[in-house]
Amino acid sequence: MEEIVESALSLIYLFLTLVSVCLLLVRGVKGRPVRWLVVLVVSEGTLSCLVHSSFLKVALATVLCGLVHYIGREEVMLPALNKAVLITGCDSGLGHNLAKCLDSAGMRVFAGVLDECGPGALELKRAASSKLTVLQLDVTNRRQITQAYEFIRSQTGETGLWGVVNNAGVLGYVGDGEILPIKLYKKYFDVNFIGSVEVTQVFLPMIRQSKGRIISISSMAGFSAYGASKAALTVYSGTMRQELSRWGVKVIIIQPGAFKTNIFGRREQWIGVQEEILSGISQDVMETYGVEYIRSMQQRLVEMSSTSSPNTGPFLESLKHALLSSRPNPFYYPGAAAWALPLVYRHFPTSLSDKLFSRIFMNGDAKPAQH
Questions:
Q1: 34 and 181 share a domain?
Q2: pTM for the whole thing?
Q3: Domain boundaries, position 18
């Protein structure tokens, strides 16, 4: 009889442990924080090895399962109706889709665009509801940012502005850090970092008043100039999260996977930058890399664009959760296996993570002339 009870308890223990691990994996796939839950699972496993009583093991597994379920439970979502949000970079891609999505959810959307008369802006005006307003907003233009602030403040009144989504960004061309023109570095930082900082500073009084959200679209992409600008945005947002918490403002970072957008630019833009590189680098650098390697970077952009996912659903769901959850996550990783990149970067040996990232982001089969 004792053997039967012992076997039954062992099966219950294994079942509860398996349930806990499955809940943990589901949470990780959704891009939600799992660090402390991993610590709980490991701690429970360690204690179980030290405890010989099957009753105590089952008790530990029950407590663990309950904690994982409680910590990972679905929280209350705030009402979207009439909450106002500013989104930059709505001409196309993720920002364009997000503006439509939040408009459909009942939010009052101010969609900032680089060209108010462009096809993306005209599409928003045609397809969206009367609650969506398209604004001319170049994030590198201080005057336009100030004008957008004055307009939104006059339109929102006492309800204020609930959220700012710093989505505007440029990539356009990727290449080895040594050969990219300095003016390309400056462009990336002006749009991807400085522009987001300036928009955040201007609109912070309204966000502080509403105890709302500041959301920045960052990246884990390992490209020299683009990656550096996004890394700056991530560090800045992390610091602001700490500083603004005293006023109840939530600062959130989104690091999406590869989605099909217009951030890669157009082929004619790639050719223009490529010719600028070829005509501007020194003879020593040219001999080191070679013309063939430099020209191969254009194909790299084509391959990246072709393998990107056209389904922006995971991104849109993450943004809605970040804006409307009563307990938003500090980080979101929407997209196929996007959560794996920061996991590898933070916890794997540097030599291993470098090899993995180089396979993902470096220039395919092409090699420099001298290597």
A1: no
A2: 0.78
A3: 2-71
Same domain? For 158 and 260 the reply is yes
Q: What is the dihedral of CA 318, 219, 167, 225, to 10 degrees?
A: 180
Distance CA 107, CA 245 (A): 24
Paired with 87 in beta bridges are 111, 165
| Sequential DSSP letters for 170-233 | -------TTTS-HHHHHHHIIIIIIHHHHHHHHHHHHHHHHT-EEEEE------HHHHHHHHHH
User: Within a 13 Å sphere around the CA of 325, how many CA atoms are in the beta-carbon half?
Assistant: 19
5 contact partners, CB below 8 Å, separation of at least 6 = 54
Print pLDDT tens along the chain (371 aa).
Answer: 666 656 665 666 566 567 666 665 666 555 555 554 555 555 556 655 655 566 665 565 566 566 655 655 556 789 988 899 999 999 999 999 999 999 999 999 999 999 999 999 999 999 999 999 999 999 999 999 999 999 999 999 888 999 999 999 988 777 888 888 898 899 999 999 999 999 999 999 999 999 999 999 998 776 788 889 999 999 999 999 999 999 999 999 999 877 777 766 666 777 777 888 888 888 898 888 888 888 887 777 666 666 677 788 889 999 999 999 999 999 999 887 676 777 776 777 888 777 776 776 665 677 887 77
Amino acid at the residue 271: I
| Catalytic-role residue among 13, 149, 173, 226 | 226
Concerning whether 149 is annotated as a catalytic residue, the answer is no
156 and 265 both lie in a single domain = yes
- Domain edge (last residue) among 71, 95, 125: 71
Number of domains in the chain: 2
Evaluate whether residue 367 is within a structural domain.
no
- Chain CA centroid to CA 86, Å: 17
